[in-house]
Amino acid sequence: MTTPSSPGETSLATSVSSLPPSSAAKSPTYAEQYKARAVNWRFSTLCASVDNKDQYGASSTPIYQTATFKGMDGQYDYTRSGNPTRGGLESHLARLYGATQTFALSTGMTCLDTILRLVKPGETVLAGDDLYGGTNRLLTYLGTHGGVDVRHVDTTKVEAVLPHLEPGNKVKMVLLESPTNPLLKIADLAAISAAVKAAAPAALIVVDNTMMSPYLQRPLELGADIVYDSGTKYLSGHHDLMAGIIAASRPDVCKDIAFLINSVGSGLAPFDSFLLLRGVKTMSLRMDRQMATAQLVAVYLDSLGFLVHYPGLKSHPKADIHWKQATGAGAVLSFVTDDKALSERIVGGTRLWGISVSFGAVNSLISMPCLMSHASISAAVRAERGLPENLIRLCVGIEDPRDLIDDLEHSLLSAGAITPNLSYSPLSHAKAAELYATDSEAWILDRARGFKRPSGTAIDKLISGVKRGLGITPVKNTIDQDIVVSAPGKVILFGEHAVVHGVTAVATSVDLRCFAVLSPRSDEKVGLEVPDLDVELEWKISKLPWNLLPVHSQGQKRVADKELDPPLLQAIEGLVNTHVEVGKTGIGSAIAFLYLYMVMAGSESNALAVTFTASSNLPIGAGLGSSAAYSACVASALLLAHSHISAPTDDTLSASATNIVDGWAFLSEKVLHGNPSGIDNAVAVRGGAVAYTRAVGGRSGGLNNLHGFSSVRLLLTNTLVARNTKSLVAGVSAKRLAEPHVVDPILDAIQEISDEAQTLLSGQAHADRKELVSRLETLIMENHTHLVNLGVSHPSLEAIVAATAAEPFGLASKLTGAGGGGCAVTLIPDEFPQSTLKELIETLERNGFQPHLTTLGGPGLGIHTPTATDDDKVGSDEAGEGVIVPKRAGLRDAGADGLASWAERLGGWTYT
Ligand SMILES: Nc1ncnc2c1ncn2[C@@H]1O[C@H](COP(=O)(O)OP(=O)(O)OP(=O)(O)O)[C@@H](O)[C@H]1O
Ligand SMILES: C[C@@](O)(CCO)CC(=O)[O-]
């Protein structure tokens, strides 16, 4: 391996043997000997040492969390000017930087801002052309507002810098960076510094050393006047603070910088100074590990045939210059794929590599700089500066290298960036483990031999196109771009359970939803990701039980079957049940997905290589129709992918498309739910408030939209008691069979309740609103009593009914959905005081329940219509770190609380 195990160790100190010879006259005391040795401490020792002289002997520098200091003659008076914690950090870092002085500031950008204040209007700054977006933005501002001539030149080449150094140009500052970010270009720091000093002696050489840290490179020793680092990166190492460090040795420069920091008040706060001191202690350890892994990743990608930028590779065009001035290659590398969409798929497919800006932390990160850290540079300028849009940057952390390679490899495979090399015979598990332990570079080279990059020449593409046309090779179908959908849950106001037996039920959609992304993949597999349920599964399309597809579903299917096919369902259950690591809830969602996936494709040759990712802010299995919302998402995404329905036009989805989605969602509900009435999927697809009657026993069913009462408030309270809809519904059916004389009159009574509710909610009743609400409350209480008699309540539901009915609340509640736990619904009358509602919510929370306020009605199925730049944007270009995250990853990482805003940021939704 090229990276020495402790690269910085030799650079600060020589060795113990180089200590000054002891004087013959007087042998030094023990303390003197120790002091002399300490002068030569190596980098890691300096990092870990604590040199503060605390009055109590504290072994880490204490946090002096104070703005002011008493007295007139002490060392400190005001934290803006100086603070013992910050001071401790600064003197500690000065040793690490080999500088006379260092200064700790609030961010790396504050450092640059402070340094740039040394330039006066009319003077010139020479800066590089492969710059961090934030640096570029600040320099642009300086040009337009500060009267400074900012010129971008290729500062990695002496010959590009020299022509700008003529005296007439008044060059005051030359900003250098090596390696650059993200292209890892190398500048010969000593050569450029010398050339600049000779041609423009007044110019200050400033080096942004963030990519290296003082552990690997100390530009002050190479001729620089000022060095700055973003302390947020390697120095702190944990992405839990922001800081910047300026290091300098020239007294005039130190004086000016100190003056500016004191005047502006940009010094680092005491607590952050403490955190940074803590992080620095492990810097060399962390970086050794990070670099060793970065080297493996670079070798792996390089031997797969990607163009990799990393100075640790012998093939790097300026590796010799880099190793002359630095002692390690760092832990940031980048590579190109030649295809922006492919890069997005790779970035969206990794899991261990987090999508994030910044670098240098213990956790590994992946990004596409053009969409993230460098998004504030316009596309035209990026192109001019040779920054490929498809560039992927990897920032390597301290995780186990094998896990990082696994994750990256999986993503490269599923994105289609590499394919298995069929002529490769893999090493046995034991052999591979042995090779990893003895020669990790040989291990990674062997691993890379298991794959190859698909050849992408025009001729190859032509040949594979012709072959596909002739049906010669089974090239898998996929979709052109992500399909994004969402569907709401529901609350049943009247008629649950009875609706299964043909009684009318009244239900409304809620403002909690399931969201899903169907994304293309290229590895002939189908994947399912449900982060809420820890589901991360994939299957080879060819290994699915295609031979069991019912005969009538051969050929692509547009309209759903009415019934499930038991042999196919059983085969899918068998396949999915082998994933013992997945819980029961997740298993159910996988079976439903695969069933729809297969039946809708109709045959293996029509199957799509896709990943379905779903996440929901609905409580799952709590009576709010989470299964129907999920089913509607699966159905609509797959139907759109197969072009069985077309994307909405004129802001509407056609009535026939809506019915087709509903049919498939119902089929999925049958998988999840046993004997569903169809009300949940009807609401998930259509939204709004509806009266729904199932067609049973020859009686025709139907759906009636209710528009009269849109502003009724409902409180949904989750008991958090888990239950199973399938068995509760089956329980009522069994009771009906056993005791029809008990159950049938209950069903009749519920029908009367639903009929009256329908009249009240459709605005047909001739009564004022107060009377209507009071009547609805009576119906709610009656309906609940009937559900109790059907045996589907639960003590916790009864506790909610009692708590809401008690003084001072006096409200009517009932269970909703399947019961047996799950949720209760409480009607909140218009005039109900806000303060009492607050008190009710607090009471319920105190009793361990989870209340959620909502209103009646709301949108149904949502389909996202893609626009030119519709990826998930977090922050904006103006904010500097414009983060654009591939949709699949954005959904996966949003979390229940972030889903609604994730969807809102995407924009472009059409609802039924
Ligand atoms: N967000 C989701 N992602 C994946 N699967 C889900 C999701 N939500 C629900 N499911 C599937 O649906 C099942 C829950 O369905 P179930 O019918 O028991 O509850 P519900 O629909 O929330 O309640 P109810 O039917 O009483 O309204 C889960 O076990 C899971 O298989
Ligand atoms: C219990 C039930 O009535 C509602 C489940 O949300 C069953 C159904 O209608 O499918």
From TrEMBL:
Its cofactor is pyridoxal 5'-phosphate. Residues 10-26 have a biased composition (Low complexity). The keyword Cytoplasm applies. Coiled coil: none annotated. Residues 608-687 form the GHMP kinase N-terminal domain. GO terms for molecular function: ATP binding; cysteine-S-conjugate beta-lyase activity; metal ion binding; mevalonate kinase activity; pyridoxal phosphate binding. GO terms for biological process: 'de novo' L-methionine biosynthetic process; isopentenyl diphosphate biosynthetic process, mevalonate pathway; sterol biosynthetic process; transsulfuration. Residues 774-833 form the GHMP kinase C-terminal domain. It is found in: Cytoplasm. It catalyses: an S-substituted L-cysteine + H2O = a thiol + pyruvate + NH4(+); L,L-cystathionine + H2O = L-homocysteine + pyruvate + NH4(+); (R)-mevalonate + ATP = (R)-5-phosphomevalonate + ADP + H(+). NCBIfam families: cysta_beta_ly_E, mevalon_kin. This is Cystathionine beta-lyase. It comes from Kwoniella shandongensis.
